Task: structure prediction
Amino acid sequence: MRRLTLAFETSCDETCCAIVDDDLRVLSNVVSSQIDIHKLYGGVVPEIASRNHVMAVQPVFEEAMAQAGVGIRDIDQICATTHPGLAGAVMVGRVFGESLATALGEPFVCINHLAGHVASVALSENVKPPFLSLLVSGGHTSLYKVSAWNDVQLLQSTSDDACGEAFDKVAKILGLPYPGGGEIEREAKKYNGTDFIAFVQKPNYYKECFSYSGLKTAVLNYVNRKKQAGEDIILPQVTASFQVEAVEQLAVKCASAILKTGINTLCVCGGVAANGYLRQKMKQVCEKLGASVLFPKMEYCGDNAAMIAAAAILGVEIK
Ligand code: KG4
Ligand code: ZN
Result:
């Protein structure tokens, strides 16, 4: 008989609930985004996020149950993101899920948000360990070696800003709305020139960690220099140049990890994995190395609860 997992994700600015079966078939995956609220402030305001999760969690849960066409007694286990995340925000999904589990007498599983992102690729691809997993989101830039689902080891992470955070901060510098990742990609697509600005963070490529604050500052300095000289910036050129360098660093480090570990499957997950240029570049780099690269479906790149259910079902553990 199929077992059903009910999952909650409220670690940042999305209230999410999903129902997934043991074969990782997603019966429902409801995401209620607060982006329009936080846009007014240019970033996520933690207290506002918590309050909105409180108001959204019950309707989102009811919608997920209705879409899946199941009753509460059909649920076999409940899980929620419990860490890392905004303290007040993450608590909402956890308390809602844990209370429900207690009332029903079903088990409750605490899930690491990052384990959820690592598991997200398995919702649409037939991927089995060992593989390398690059997690690129607003809060993290981490490269993992997934030896087994319950044996995920961190190889490298960022020493300063996360990659998505750099997209968001550069967007802000350029006057683009929050969240900036998609906006930067849209602007960059308009550039068909070849004169890329060298913000040059190449020395970082060879360090044992990712680093994005230098690239972000280089863009800021460039914009300020142009302003002081009374010159206009070409938005598509600046965004395309930033995007090339942001992605180049990921590509160089993943290529080197593939060569070092001999593991020739790479999964790229997290919000930034939605970026079309990143997908194209990673495919090129992996093809050259005879490695394969897999991505989650678009709806499983950003925060969602289906990936949290997948982490519970697969037993993903980050060491
Ligand atoms: O995984 P996610 O939804 O939340 C975190 O766990 O952080 O990732 C959100 C991040 C934001 O920084 C957002 O700007 C970035 O993912 N992002 C993108 C794109 N879509 C979202 N970055 C680059 N290109 C995109 N198309
Ligand atoms: Zn996330």
About this structure: The two ends are 32 Å apart (CA to CA). The mean pLDDT is 95.
